[in-house]
Design goal:
This protein is α/β, with parallel strands linked by helices and about 325 residues long. The protein has 12 helices and 10 strands. Helix 2 crosses helix 3 and helix 9 packs across helix 10. The longest helix has 17 residues. The radius of gyration is 19 Å and the shape is globular.
Amino acid sequence: MSEALETRRPLGRSALTVSRIALGCGNFGGVGSAPEFFGQGLNQDKALELMDAAWEFGITHFDTADAYGGGRSELAIGRWIASRGVRPQLTTKIYNPMQAGGDRGLRPERIARHLRASLERLGVDRVELYLAHEFDPEVPLPESLGAFDQARAEGMIGAYGVSNFGAPQLAAALAAGEPQAIQNSYSLLAREDERELLGLCAERQVAYLVFSPLAGGWLTGKYRRGEPFPEGSRMTQRPEPYRELVTGRTFDALARLEAMASGRGISMAGLALAWLLADERVTQIVIGPGRPGHLAPVGEALAHPLTAAERAAVGNAVA
């Protein structure tokens, strides 16, 4: 397992490489970037425990954002680095407000100010990857990406990229600057990027990074037909990104996936992650476990890799 976790992929055309699996830290002190949940999620002790478990497991890349928990996620990672004396690779992001009613966006002066604040919270002088968390229609891309270029020239970031961009937006970013990566939602239940964006990434050598690989918990089997959603799950906290999955068709697909996973002797989550790891177009998968035990499906996926034919069969079953 450790050897598989140490496998690294080039980060686009940059000189950097990244591991296949990163720890998503969006639930440290909040539930993602939603101001109404700042101060909730995993408290500091639970966050430190999870980072310890991930590091021991072999995960050495941590993914966060300045607005996760209103800065609490970056602070927790910074405290972990300072207290443990080790340095993971780091991805952080900018766009969303840091407080209720706060400003947002990708203005150059905001990027410069927020990056300095992120580095201070993390307790480092540089992050490996800095991402625009959303597309900002109010600021010309050359201005925003120019600020990223400046930060890279000053040594504060190793490379930059974008997140939650569609294919036309990524094409515009590539015309305006040098993004080396894109991080989007992709899973067996969210495959829109297969139409255009994955091909564009391959053509232009942009690293494709995946968040929400288990579709907000839908690919773990926790949501059952005709049963209430488990308390504390994404569907009881921030259901908006996943409401369209509440259909009979989804539950039929999950039943087929569960049967295939059972036939392989692994969990649904393990099979869903194995499906992603078998895709050569995917550079990195960001997982967001709520506790150390949730790392188990990663081990299953690594121990039970899929062939191309097996991957196709799983994808067809859940289509």
